[in-house]
Amino acid sequence: MTPQPPPEPRNADGEMRRVGVEIEFAGLPPRETAELVRELFGGEVEVLSPHRLKVSGTRWGEFGIELDTQYAHPDQTVVDAEAAGDSEWERMRLDFHARTRELIGDVVTGLVPTEIVCPPVPWDELEELDALFEALRTHGAKGTDASLLYGFGLHLNPEVPSLEVEHLLAYLRAYMLTAAWLREQIHVDITREVLPHANPFPRAYALKILDPDYAPDLETLIADYLEDNPTRNRELDMLPLFAHLAPDFPHELLQNRLVKPRPTFHYRLPNAQLSEPGWGAVTEWNRWLEVERLAATPETLAERGAQFLARHRPSAPRRWLIRLRRWVTRQ
After folding, report:
1. Residues 17-29, buried b or exposed e (16+ Cβ, 10 A)?
2. SS3 category, 42
3. Rounded to whole angstroms, what are the CA distances from 51 to 12, 65, 216, 272?
4. pTM assigned to the model
5. Nearest Cα residue to 25 out of 150, 127, 128, 135
6. Is the pLDDT higher at 28 or at 144?
7. Of these four, 92, 215, 277, 308, which has the most CB atoms within 10 Å of its CB?
C-alpha cells in the first residue's frame, strides 16, 4: 500500500512533514525485536537496561524498544540519587534495585507488550517503514486481535503543517467530525474500548470548539482543552503539541514526564492489527488523511460543523438551565 499525499505535505519550514510511529505487540521480547530492527534498517543495538534497548544510527534516527511498563526498568530518580553517592552501601542498593527491576521484567514478559517507538519518518517513506510490520508478523508478534487481553495500539504522530492557532483549531474541529467514521473503519477492539487509553472527546467539548464564534488565542485553546480533557488518554492527544508550544503553561499535565513535547498530533486510536496481512503504518496514515482533507477545506468544515451543532446542541431553554446549574455549582 502506498501512502497518500496530505493536502499540506510540508511543514512550516518547507521540509517534508514527518510521522512518528509507535506500535505495541506481544510474542517478541525487546532484545529479539531490537535485532530485527537492526537487520532491517542497520544501525547499532545499545542495551540501556535488560528490557530497554535502542537502535541508533539508522537512516531515520533512533528506534526505542522496551517492555511497556515502568516497573521493568530502573527508576531514573532512584538511579540518579544513588549514583550521586559513593559508598559501598549505596552501590549495593543500586545493584539491588536494578536486579529487582530486571526480575520484574522477566516475570511480566509475555504479559505486557513490547513497544517500538520509531524515529520520525517522512510521510512519503512510510511504505519502507512498513517492512518492519511484515517482519514482526513473520517472527510471531501478536497484535490486538490475538487475545481478549491484548489492548494494544498503534499511535501516529503526524508533524503539524503549521503552528498557527487557527490551523490547529481547524484540525481539532475536523477530528471531532471524523472521529465516528474513523472508529467505524478501524473497528476499535472491545478491549481498547474498555481500557482508558484512547477515549472519545466529551460532547460538551465538541460543541464548544465547533461553535463558529469560538476563536481562541493559544492560551485559551490550551486552557479550554485541559478543562474538558484533563487526561493523556484522548484518541487525539494534544498534550505533546501544547507542551511544545507553551512549555511554561501552568498545568501539571503539561509538566508530566510522560508527556513528550513535540510539534505533532498524537493520534492514539488505531488497533495493532498485526494478524492482518498488509496492515501497517500506511493503512492508518491513509485513514488519518480524512481529518487533514476536511481541515483543509474551510467551507466543508463549517458546513459539517453546523450540521453537528444542529443535531447535538441543546435547545435554548436547556442551555439556559445548564448555565444556571454551573453558576449555582460555583457559588
Report:
1. bbbbbbbbbbbbb
2. coil
3. 38, 8, 44, 21
4. 0.87
5. 150
6. 28
7. 308
